[in-house]
Amino acid sequence: MQKENNLKKDDLEVGQVLKISNQVDGIVYTIEDKINVVVFANKYTLNLQDLMTLNYVQDETEIFSPGQEVFINITKEKAYEVGLLEKPKPIVIPKSTITYRPIIKKSSIPVIKTIRKPTTLISTAADDE
Questions:
Q1: If we measure between CA atoms, which residue out of 51, 55, 29, 53 comes closest to residue 38?
Q2: What is the dihedral of CA 40, 44, 47, 53, to 10 degrees?
Q3: Are 64 and 70 within 8 A, CB to CB?
Q4: Which of 2, 68, 114, 117 could link 7 by a cystine bridge, Cβ 3.0 to 4.6 Å?
Q5: Does the pLDDT value for residue 124 go beyond 60?
């Protein structure tokens, strides 16, 4: 809320109008193994209160189950950094599978005669037949 309203400090003034967004940036993560909400938050250095609030967790003893999807207010970059997401590996195409073909453009000008050896440009009537 501070960011959306350009607030420099926590103090609010009477009558001050604030923007309140119902959208939170983050990722949806699918739980892999059975894990306690507190252990999960600590493992990935997440804010426990945010994690609990965003996922309607009532009690710190709650266990996340495999396959359960949880919303985490974290950027993708931070998720890569803390190990929540694995960075996609670049696809490497071996050179041997790449083929190069020259592009040949056909000319719209008709070829009358192709000269193979150096010659003079004098022709006789017999040459043109």
A1: 51
A2: -40
A3: yes
A4: 2
A5: no
Q: What is the mean pLDDT of residues 59-74?
A: 95
pLDDT at 8: 72
Domains of the chain in sequence order: 27-82 (3.10.350)
Helix (H) or strand (E) holding 27: strand 27-30
Residue 121 in this model has a pLDDT that exceeds 80: no
Query: What are phi and psi for residue 102, nearest 5 degrees?
Result: -70, 145
Q: How many CA atoms lie within 13 A of 51 on its CB side?
A: 22
Report the predicted TM-score, pTM, of the whole model to 2 decimal places: 0.53
Give which of 64, 70, 35 is closest to 51, Cα–Cα.
70
The rounded distance, in Å, linking the Cα atoms of 68 and 31 is 5
The DSSP result for 40-87, as a single string, is HHHHTT--HHHHHHHTT---TT-EEPTT-EEEE---HHHHHHHTSSPP
Show Cβ contacts of residue 22 under 8 Å, excluding neighbours closer than 6 positions: none
Name the nearest CA neighbour of 46 among 80, 82, 76, 1: 82
